[in-house]
Amino acid sequence: MAITDADFVAANERGEAKKAAFPAALTVKYDKRVARVVITLASGLQIAFLPRDVQGLEQAHPAELVDAVISASGLGVHFPQLDVDLDIPALLEGFLGSKRWMAAQIGRVGGQASSQAKAVAACENGKRGGRPKKVSGLLPVATRVSN
Question: Could you tell me the pTM of the whole model?
């Protein structure tokens, strides 16, 4: 796919608009003491997060996080040893990964929730032989709707 001059100009305009809307990162470091990546922005705001909460960094070792660098635009952070890039505007908007990845993380946490009702339901299900086995390879039966 060839990039036209119009595409190039439009991309530059979007980049400039993004740079105007979000503060640039000034520093990035991995703080071993609190086990968090800390990004300081030009606005004075600091973003600190656990690597396990960020897509691409969830299995990272501290030694792989110490050489992070800020992109030329100031709107990204690159972790060379992991070949992972983080978008600062996305971090500020509350997304530490793709929508699919975030949904999986939220679902995992929700699945760990316990309540009296959940405990009773699990006990009752256990009395009936436990969770039903998944049947694979079967297609749903089509039903005919008459008018």
Answer: 0.58
